[in-house]
């Protein structure tokens, strides 16, 4: 994009930032995020230009006003969770959709494959898991595997493993998104085969009410981590007007922030799996946890980012 076109498209918005002064922290933060994006673009394509100096000036002034009345560290943390991560989620909305669709389709593939091949579940889940679960079903407790070790040991192991899987899904995006797609397909087929295994034994509802207590957050976070991998991978595939290196740097930075933002989600999922899933809860208790988890994911990563973006463009 030529510098004159860049200035023409954004000049009115920049001028409104200067003329309509405000002390509202929400408005200041949304303006600051928008300006830093513009400044980053100008640094890449118009180094040494007058528009770069101009953007440096108004961004610095906005930064001073935004952080003058609060501690930097605390403000940075609040800004990340309240604004930056949701903005990145909005920017990655297409990748989130693609990751969800790929995962959903591969779940169906896992179900259909398990329904048409008696050996498929064992191939995917392993003989040890299948045999143990069949024994548990015979003993009247199909999901006793979640009670097989102490809660504290399970929490640590599960949380570390979930974080490992999410970062694997993200890092695999460096293979031009193909690695991330592979991780999605692998996990989707596994989940489909797993759920069909219980469906075939008339235990689908019981498994859903038990497993999705933690699975709602855990599976959602894996999908979102995969979207982070697609953000990075697509920055290599489709650099647009940026050089491939600059595009990759920006995509990797956004994807990494999105993946890091999932760590508390995985910790919560690990806690639920270790301390709550093993309990015998009433149906309303299981449904409540599943619904609250689903509403949080949809609100924080889909609805709230759209509202923030609407505020920025008003």
Automatic annotation (TrEMBL):
Pfam families: SpoIIM. Signal peptide: none annotated. The chain crosses the membrane at residues 96-115, 154-176, 181-199, 211-237, 258-277, 283-303. Keywords: Membrane, Transmembrane, Transmembrane helix. InterPro entries: SpoIIM-like (IPR002798). The keyword Membrane applies. This is Stage II sporulation protein M.
